[in-house]
Amino acid sequence: MLLTLDLNDPRPLHEQIAEAVRRAIALGDVRPGDRLPPARDLAAALGVNTNTALRALRELRDEGVLEFRRGRGVSVLRAPEPREVLRDRVTALLEEAERYGYRVDEVIEIVRELAEAKEGRR
Amino acid sequence: MNVRRWYIPIAVGWTVLVAVLVVVAPVPLLDRLPDPLATHWGLSGRADGASPYWLDALVMVLLWLVIAGLPLYRLIRGDALRRRHDRRWMCAVLAGGGVFVLALQTMTILANLDRTDWRDAAPVGPGTLLAVFGVSALAGAIGWALARPGPDEEPPASGRRPPRPLRTLRSGERAVWVSSATAGWAVTAGSGLLLLAVLLGVLPPLGTEHRIVLAVSTGVSAVAALALSGVRVQVNARGLAVAFGPLRWPVRRIPLDRIDRAFVDRRWPADVGGWGYRVRPGSSTVMIRGGECLVVRYGSGRELAISVDDAERGAALLNSLVAERDNDRS
After folding, report:
1. Of A16, A17, A92, B156, which is the most exposed, with the fewest CB atoms less than 10 Å away?
2. How would you list the strands of the sheet with B251-255, edge to edge?
3. Pairing mode, strands B303-307 and B37-41
């Protein structure tokens, strides 16, 4: 499983990891029924504490995306809605914008400009 | 291409045919056989064990199912069919094993035929045994030869693919890949051996020195089997790390600096000389199970291949990391 984190993301690590896993599942890298690598292996690869990775996986379990089973590890229960994944990313964007001092309507303005530019290129 | 479709019906048909023949063929002769039959012969060649006919037939069928089980499973699951080498071995085992069981049963029946008591059964000497093994080996060779038709088929996602980077990583993005491969049979064998080692060490029936030697050698085999029962592979900005076995120890780390590129290949134990850590000139392989392997080529030109699931994404990430490293340098 491939996970990507953004080092500039101001949110707590466990939220970022949860988002990365959610995105990997939403994109179909890992499908419902597939087993996830154990938390300790994810943590070792990401260079974070095992508890941080576990916390991320527990969040996803509470969302109903993952399932923990004794002796069988963690497996994917259902793919998250793409909308949830987008919401995650927008939340991160808004938080970063806030750090630069932008207001929400200014971010929306940027999004609109970019969308119009993309529309214009077609 | 369609030739391969015939292997499964023929293999299943052969398995059923042998099982039926072993049980049914002697039935018309039951009047001329003693009850019980001589079914076991000692080293001297004289019959020293007997059992009723139904038990003899049951043992023969079970023996046959044990022999035929693995090749049938591998043929039907499909992976043995694709490669001529595997296919030939499976067909050789099926043909040789089937004839072996039939010859064994024939030998038993002939030795008992027209005797009133199993103790009078004809002796079985080295000549008879040689004949049984010879016929089986011949049948195995015929099975081997017959399994030739049909090409080696490589599944569509196969062959040495050129390295293909994932995409350029954005600055400030941390990407990692984690995957694994496990061989279920090695886990079972290793755990069984470990249990046996503990039992040998604890239980009293053996003499002390024998017990220690046996326990230690069993223990060492158990650890070796467990260490090679699985790998955990990770790729991150530091490079590649391969951890062996359930304890994730030992760990082999390959720093990103040493890696030139990565790609995916399909390799099988037969290609690299067996399971485990196989070293060959120019290329080492960590062979846990046949199939998809992640291959890294070092700057020195040597290669390391690791059998692991989802190898493609791992290779893509490695190539992206290598590209990023080279950009930083220039």
Report:
1. B156
2. A2-6, B173-182, B230-236, B239-244, B251-255
3. unpaired
Q: Do the Cβ atoms of A37 and B179 come within 8 Å?
A: yes
User: What's the gap in Å between the CA of B235 and the closest CA on chain A?
Assistant: 7
- The per-residue pLDDT for range B187-227, each reduced to its tens digit, is 888 888 888 888 877 766 556 666 777 788 888 888 888 88
ipTM above 0.95, yes or no: no
Q: Is the full-model pTM beyond 0.90?
A: no
Q: Of B173, B236, B314, which is closest to A7 when you measure between CB atoms?
A: B173
CA dihedral for B160, B161, B163, B165, sign (positive or negative):
negative
User: CB distance B178–A47 less than 8 Å?
Assistant: no
Cβ-based contacts of A2 with chain B (< 8 Å): 166, 175-177, 313-314, 317
Nearest by CB to B172, from A2, A6, A47: name it.
A6
SS3 for chain A is: CEEEEECCCCCCHHHHHHHHHHHHHHCCCCCCCCECCCHHHHHHHHCCCHHHHHHHHHHHHHCCCEEEECCCEEEECCCCCHHHHHHHHHHHHHHHHHHHCCCHHHHHHHHHHHHHHHHHHC
Q: B286 Cβ partners below 8 Å, 6+ apart?
A: B231, B242, B244, B252, B276, B277, B278, B304, B305, B306, B307
**Per-residue pLDDT tens for A63-111?**
889 999 887 789 999 888 788 778 888 888 898 899 889 999 999 999 9
The rounded distance, in Å, linking the Cα atoms of A19 and A23 is: 6
Instruction: Delineate the domains of chain A, giving CATH numbers in brackets.
Output: 13-76 (1.10.10.10), 82-121 (no CATH)
CB contact set of A63 (below 8 Å; sequence gap of 6+): A80, A84
User: If pLDDT is split at 50, 70 and 90, which confidence band does B101 have?
Assistant: very high
Q: Which residues are bridge partners to B295 per DSSP?
A: B263, B305
Q: Indicate the residue type of B111.
A: A
